[in-house]
Amino acid sequence: MPFKTIQDAQISLGGLQDEMNRLIERVWHAGLSTGPFDGQQWGPVMDVYEHDDAFLLFAELPGVDGKDVEVTVLGSVLTVRGEKRRPESLTEADCPVRTERRFGTFNRSIELPVGIDADALTAKCSGGVLAVRIPKLESSKPRSVRIETEEG
Question: In terms of residue numbers, what domain contains 76?
């Protein structure tokens, strides 16, 4: 049932901000042209998860060969760059009727918390998904502390 007035609507500023963030992220890196903003034709979407011993990054790279991807770490900034190549069967002479796929170079950087072990980073590209494991330094891993009590 539609709202009659703005007072009838239950407005959550936090919810509105979350929706706007999702919209901006989709437009910025979901394959739409973002040239005016960052000079790229497209960028992969990425998820980062934290575990006790490592961070896991997943980037969607459909149609990108793993040999065309580079993963680097400088300090706590992880960068994924590469190129999605146009199929060799297409030439400049082909006249597109409709084009939605994007091709070209991409470059995405994210800042991770300090305490990562860049020397032990591993990456695997399979089925159009890049999976990167970024181990934490031993000093950054959570540890339990035994609490002494009066009873012993």
Answer: 44-88+103-140
pTM: 0.65
Per-residue pLDDT of the chain (152 residues; tens, 9 = 90+): 555 555 545 567 777 777 787 777 666 554 444 444 456 667 888 999 998 899 999 999 998 999 999 999 988 889 999 998 888 887 777 787 887 778 888 898 888 887 888 899 999 999 999 999 999 988 777 778 888 888 75
Answer whether residue 5 is part of any domain.
Answer: no
Q: How far apart are the C-alpha atoms of 82 and 63, rounded to whole Å?
A: 12
The Cα 62–Cα 60 span in angstroms is 6
Evaluate whether 137 touches 117 at the Cβ level (below 8 Å).
yes
Do the beta carbons of residue 112 and residue 121 sit within 8 Å?
A: no
